């Protein structure tokens, strides 16, 4: 139980470190809610499944992951910004894969939350996301 509490705290810290400080009742630009976490067949790796929301008009700052991100877009509007690639518009039913260590960001140009399910196959004991310059 304590390990899952630490995991949730780490995810909250990661999400907050990717977002500028908020005041009042403004929602954070990026919110990750962990759904499941389990070991995978690759030594020292685990899979994390999360529901991700990007607030309307917000940008999830540039960051990397210590493993692969495989995400499925549920709804709203989105724009994936991967270093070295043109921006990619996303809508419900589309998916994307970002290899470990690749710098990326996401933007929601719409008026409703952008929602997706993210699956991260990452190194154990590492932060889920690290801000990039």
From TrEMBL:
Species assigned in the record: Pseudoduganella armeniaca
Protein name: Cupin domain-containing protein
Lineage: Bacteria, Pseudomonadati, Pseudomonadota, Betaproteobacteria, Burkholderiales
Start and end residues of each Cupin type-2 domain: 51-119
Record keywords: Signal
Range of residues in the leader sequence: 1-21
SUPFAM superfamilies per the UniProt record, alphabetical: RmlC-like cupins
Signal among keywords: yes
């Amino acid at each position: 139980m304590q390990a899952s509490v630490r995991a949730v705290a780490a995810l909250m810290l990661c999400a907050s470190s990717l977002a500028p400080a908020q005041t009042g009742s403004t929602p954070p630009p990026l919110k990750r809610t962990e759904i499941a976490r389990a070991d995978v067949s690759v030594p020292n790796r685990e899979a994390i499944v999360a529901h991700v929301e990007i607030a309307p008009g917000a940008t999830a700052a540039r960051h990397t992951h210590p493993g692969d991100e495989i995400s499925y877009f549920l709804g709203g509007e989105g724009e994936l910004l991967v270093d070295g690639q043109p921006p990619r518009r996303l809508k419900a039913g589309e998916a994307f894969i970002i290899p470990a260590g690749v710098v990326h960001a996401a933007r929601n140009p719409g008026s409703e939350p952008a929602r997706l399910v993210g699956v991260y196959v990452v190194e154990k004991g590492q932060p889920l996301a690290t801000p990039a310059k």
